[in-house]
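TASK: fixed-backbone design
INPUT:
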């Protein structure tokens, strides 16, 4: 990094703090202002905010590791979210908006009755603030540490004012100081506005890096030729759909299990916050769709190209350290291929991606503490500005916890896989609570506990050994070799993560459904109130619909329509395929999917025009 790069980065930091001061004036009057921007967001703002949040500083590193190991098809670890994003957009996003709650934790008390409803609301808030902080916030910060150490050429320790300090700790403190102060001041308005700006900076930065990386290796034709000639890569590295190997297992698990078992399947947590902040149900659906399309179908391709180039620029034979830490290849590219000035832009873009994700995580988690714990159970009737002040304090505390976790973690990919497993059984219940009246608070509680239990039994060494012995004891003796192979080889292999996820998802879902049928349903009057307000659809609500009678939709309220889902799905995958072919230089192959994307996009647009 040269002086001009530092100037660019410094200007970015100062501008963001100034914007945070400005936004603090719009976020200090009430909980809805601070956590939902007054419910005034248009689709393009909230959708772009979703992309910016999903595009954290960890994501390019995550993709780089996968592509260096498995080729383009390795990105299915990331693309497996494609189906659940479409489901969230066309089946649930407008229902979230209709609830009028402040957080998805509060939604639970709207959906479930009595003490169990209160318990699941408070329990989810505690679970998301604690367990999620240990994982999601930590891996985003960890990625920023790796990027900073590479681009600033830092050793493991640095000396400041005569004291020898860990460089990781210094980076965490420095990056979180700016981000934490900004998030605490600006609230959700600041998150949304800067997400939009930061997405542009980050997208331009990643595009520039991919462009210069391709130019460095001699163009796209040379890239394909050299990758195909590498013994550790070969032509198979350009397969989008895997034909063999560990990624094939991940691909099929994602297609059959992961999309419905993920905790993101109904667009909850941070994504629900965006839907709740939309100015209308139409804006909630379009914003969710745009955010998902940009996140999964478009922005990932520059990361893939850069990762492929890194295989040529940083071969394992010359950079053996990348065999154990392939995530570091991405920040190394910044120093290797970019000219002075653009390095500062790209680093600022990565810091922008870091800020957009961390500010969202901090704001969402703070909303759980303030709205679903402090205001709900401790201090119920305080002045609105009091809750805003508490929210700012909580933001700083959560930031400190996440920073500590980042300094004790090693792998971005490893943390994300653990997170997926420990929450791998909640998705089915999250979807069914919108589609079936019989789901109750105990269904969700069972999903949380059983996911955690099975996650521990299949990930913690002594527990895995115990599970192995139990399964062996209850299996026929003739199955012993297969059981041993599964526990001692398959679960510890590169595809073991996918197998563990399947077991956790199926076991937790079955346990939750059994508990649902063995426990009393939600109180009738409470369920009727929920139905009148949210107006859920489908045969799963037939009984309640008969009891309550017709509850017509208002002119500006959306209903589920297979035509929107079908058109949106075709447009999504056609756009994904066309962008991929264009990025890889296969111009002719991009024509057909491009035409299909355009036609289905027009059909979808006409469907949306029917609503106010």
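OUTPUT:
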């Amino acid at each position: 990094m040269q002086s001009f790069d530092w100037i660019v980065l410094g200007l970015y930091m100062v501008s963001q703090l100034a914007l945070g001061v400005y936004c603090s004036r719009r976020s200090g009057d009430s909980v809805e202002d601070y956590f939902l921007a007054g419910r005034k967001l248009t689709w393009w703002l909230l959708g772009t905010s979703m992309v910016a949040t999903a595009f954290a500083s960890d994501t390019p590193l995550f993709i780089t590791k996968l592509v260096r190991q498995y080729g383009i098809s390795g990105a299915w670890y990331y693309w497996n979210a494609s189906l659940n994003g479409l489901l969230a957009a066309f089946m649930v996003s407008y229902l979230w908006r209709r609830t009028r709650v402040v957080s998805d934790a509060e939604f639970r008390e709207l959906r479930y009755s009595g003490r169990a409803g209160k318990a699941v609301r408070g329990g989810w808030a505690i679970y998301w603030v604690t367990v999620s902080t240990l994982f999601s916030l930590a891996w985003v910060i960890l990625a920023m540490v790796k990027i900073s150490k590479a681009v600033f050429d830092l050793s493991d320790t640095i000396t400041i004012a005569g004291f020898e300090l860990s460089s990781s700790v210094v980076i965490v403190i420095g990056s979180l100081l700016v981000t934490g102060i900004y998030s605490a001041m600006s609230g959700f308005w600041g998150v949304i506005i800067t997400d939009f700006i930061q997405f542009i900076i980050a997208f331009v930065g990643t595009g520039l890096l991919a462009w210069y990386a391709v130019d460095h290796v001699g163009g796209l034709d040379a890239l394909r030729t050299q990758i195909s000639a590498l013994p550790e890569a070969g032509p198979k590295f350009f397969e989008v759909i895997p034909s063999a190997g560990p990624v094939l297992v991940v691909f099929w698990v994602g297609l059959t299990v992961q999309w419905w078992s993920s905790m993101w399947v109904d667009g909850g947590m941070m994504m629900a916050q965006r839907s709740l902040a939309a100015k209308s149900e139409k804006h909630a659906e379009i914003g969710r769709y745009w955010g998902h399309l940009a996140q999964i179908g478009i922005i990932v391709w520059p990361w893939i190209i850069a990762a492929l180039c890194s295989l040529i620029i940083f071969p394992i034979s010359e950079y053996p350290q990348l065999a154990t830490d392939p995530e570091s290849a991405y920040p190394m590219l910044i120093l290797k291929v970019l000219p002075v000035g653009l390095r500062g832009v790209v680093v600022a873009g990565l810091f922008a991606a870091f800020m957009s994700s961390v500010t969202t995580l901090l704001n969402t988690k703070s909303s759980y503490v303030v709205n679903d714990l402090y205001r709900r159970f401790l201090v119920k009737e305080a002045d609105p500005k009091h809750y805003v002040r508490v929210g700012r304090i909580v933001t700083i505390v959560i930031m400190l916890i996440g920073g500590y976790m980042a300094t004790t973690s090693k792998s971005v990919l490893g943390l994300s896989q653990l997170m997926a497993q420990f929450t791998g059984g909640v998705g089915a219940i999250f979807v069914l609570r919108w589609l079936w009246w019989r789901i109750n608070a105990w269904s969700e509680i069972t999903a949380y506990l059983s996911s955690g239990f099975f996650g521990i039994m299949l990930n913690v060494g002594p527990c895995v050994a115990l599970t192995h012995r139990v399964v062996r004891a209850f299996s026929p003796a003739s199955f012993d070799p297969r059981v041993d192979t599964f526990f001692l080889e398959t679960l510890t292999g590169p595809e073991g993560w996918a197998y563990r996820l399947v077991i956790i998802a199926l076991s937790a879902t079955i346990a939750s459904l059994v508990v649902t049928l063995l426990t009393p349903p939600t109180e009738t009057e409470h369920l009727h109130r929920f139905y009148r307000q949210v107006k859920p659809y489908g045969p799963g609500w037939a009984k309640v619909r008969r009891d309550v009678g017709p509850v017509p939709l208002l002119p500006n309220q959306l209903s589920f329509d297979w035509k929107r889902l079908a058109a949106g799905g075709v447009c999504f995958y056609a756009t994904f395929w066309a962008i991929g072919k264009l990025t890889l230089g296969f111009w002719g192959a991009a024509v057909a999917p491009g035409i299909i994307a355009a036609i289905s996009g027009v059909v979808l647009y006409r469907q949306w025009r029917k609503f106010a």
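COMMENT: DSSP finds 27 helices and two strands in the chain.
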